[in-house]
Amino acid sequence: MNNLLKNKKIVVGVTGSISIYKSLEIIRLFIKAGAKVRVIMSESAKEFISPITFEAISQNIVLHKDTQNWQNDNNHIGLAKWADILLIAPASANTINKISAGIADNLLLETILAYNKTIIIAPSANTKMYLNPNTQASLKKLKVFGHIVINPEKKVLACKDEGVGALANPLEIFYQSSRELLKEDFWINRRIVITGGGTIEKIDDIRYISNFSSGKMAYSLALALYLKGSDVCFISTKEVENFPKNIYNIIASDSKKLQKTTENAIEVAKKGIMSKPNIYNKEAPKLIKKKPYLFMVAAVSDFIPKNATQGKLKKEIIGKTFSLELMQNIDILKEIDKNGIYTIGFKAETDEKNALQSAKNMLENKNLNGVCLNIIGKNTNFGSDENEIDFITKDKINKIKKDSKLNVSIKILNFAKELESFS
Fold it and tell me: Which helix (H) or strand (E) element contains residue 258?
């Protein structure tokens, strides 16, 4: 995710909580993505970790009671003006209730009161303190104000109590924070359906045929769309890990399940999203309908076993040779109803000489808005973390040079936006 957040300015506020050590990992993720990070510590936070630790990882002086300076911007007004986003992680129950009441009796709370952009709050507290009606009422109030609350996790806490209250996973906090920094009007509240991975077609209950598709390109594209603000439904043939919780993930392993699930998801996507009122937008909820997109990245088997066997085929019964009869599979992308949705197919080819014409034929024969062509073996292979794509429409070919699959995905989205101009 190098340079994903290049030149973005993030202030991280940390309060007194045993989970404060996770803040170091969050900051590391931000910096690795190219962001500039500055830290504010409450006095209680300094009882858990020394400011010098945060200074070492952020490469910036930490703002606290002893370092506030009015000869530069290392003060609560300066940081409030500097930041693109303000994240409080961990946010103690005490801090949450004070923010809700507009109290500003320390530097972090003063900075929050002076800040007029997006504030993200990641609670961390004992279960009883988190579920206390005062804290819950404060969190609801903060959401109405337009602040974003990243819900804590349920687990055994440091105090040995078991329940909700543990700080969310650092990667989840990174994803939700990055989404607020990277979202674009075009993609916000636009529903997207993405399929990914190689289908698994049963021979019997033990064996199957599939292909070498890793699903990494689809994963990266789903992540890119989430970060741009879309409402993403990711239909994958296998379980995925380290995915943002707010991406709706459905497992559909074989082609029949994939077709049915994709068609159902498209119907839902066409219905649009209801807006949510808050203190800054007092209008009644209304239906937001932006034309959805389908990115068909899944590698669907061209042929499937004609007759799948229940149970396990015994080699003692089969003998020394085994003939498997295959039949041509359904062409999901061709059969899907494309009315009311932009449809982009993905095509992997090994024949560089004929690959472009094959992609153009796919564009026309399957009535697509675009095709992403990937030539395997030229500069990329299945399962690699990088890709090189030709984004093909009826009017032109846009070449995307070899890069990480996430960066390639972001460039695909820039070209995909142009489809609306020609519709």
Answer: helix 255-269
Helices assigned H by DSSP within 102-154: 107-114, 127-131, 133-144
**118 vs 62, 213, 264, 404, CA distance in Å?**
21, 39, 35, 29
Q: What is the pLDDT of residues 343-354, one digit of tens each?
A: 999 999 988 889
* CA 347 from centre of chain: 23
Q: Is the pLDDT of residue 282 over 80?
A: no
Residue by residue, DSSP assigns 154-174 as: EEE-TTS-EEEEEPPPHHHHH
Residue 401 phi/psi, 5-degree rounding, is: -70, 160
Amino acid of residue 316: E
pLDDT tens-place string over residues 1-43: 678 999 999 999 999 998 999 999 999 999 999 999 999 999 9
Confidence band, pLDDT 50/70/90 cuts, at residue 318: confident
- For the chain, the first-to-last Cα distance in angstroms comes to 33
Rg of the Cα trace of the chain?
A: 25
Length of the chain: 423
Q: Give the relative orientation of helices 93-101 and 133-144 as an angle to the nearest 10 degrees.
A: 50
Q: Which domains does the chain have, with CATH numbers?
A: 9-180 (3.40.50.1950), 184-422 (3.40.50.10300)
**Structure token digits, residue 423:** 């519709």
Q: Tell me the whole-structure pTM to 2 decimals.
A: 0.92
User: Which tokens is 320 given?
Assistant: 């020394």
Closest CA to 256 of 222, 304, 206: 304
Q: Quick one: tokens of 78? A: 């300066």
DSSP structural state of residue 7:
T
Catalytic residues: 159
- Tokens (6 digits) for 284: 């009644």
